[in-house]
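Forwarding these from the shared drive since the link keeps breaking.
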Amino acid sequence: MKKRYMISTIGAIGAGAIAGYLLKDKESRTQIKEKVEQCIASFTGSHEKHHSLLEDAGIPDQVDHQDLAQFENSKMVSEGSQFGVNYYNEVMDENADHNKDL
């Protein structure tokens, strides 16, 4: 074989071995995925923070994107309802307790 093909083959095998080693744990896969998403976001210029529906329930009047449900939740909170905020706090406390147990 030519030297060029040998070097390419060894490089591909080495890259595959490194990728396999880095992606063997779920935690490291998650970290790598987040880093790649951050790099893509920095190149595309989309640095917006996307909130989940649960996070939006905890901060009803502080989100940039407001759909009809979010608008209604904001309106109820401004009228004194704390259902969405309380629900958010309860779920976050449960998640914190669950994470402590791990």
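-- next protein --
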Amino acid sequence: MAANRDNRADHGREESPEDLPALVPKRKLEDAEMDITPMIDITFLLLIFFLVAAKMDSQKAVGLPDARAGGAVLAEKAVTVIIVPSGADAVLVSNGDGGQFSTDLQVQEDEIASYVEEQLDSGKQFVLLKAGKGIRHKEVSRVAQAIGRADVPSLYLAVKQLE
């Protein structure tokens, strides 16, 4: 009965923090380590995909006129000179490797002649001139004359084959 009395006496009283049972400290979560292996796998798969899907063509795309007659030429054995439009009457002339020649016409013609001579001396057999659709004949003729100063065995004008 005395225990009953003690319980009733404690019932109305608020408990102090010392009377509460000791709380068990929460376990610290281990530092979560993220497995990056799948991420690396995806990265390599994307890299391989883009390497395979990318068009590895060093030749610049030029909108060529359609062919009416002609034969195939191996671009690997040719010195390539490319003429593309740049503005109203201006054109840009570049080599097959993507390097551009000067915009000053006299300097440009000298650079074209020396470039063609270097390439022919290094084993190339002929010159392939790519002029985009809409390039004026006078520009093609001017560049062809500059190429001709290099004692070229054969000069070919590139056209698009009809399908």
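The helical segments are 2-11, 37-53, 105-121, 137-148. The mean pLDDT is 75.

- D.
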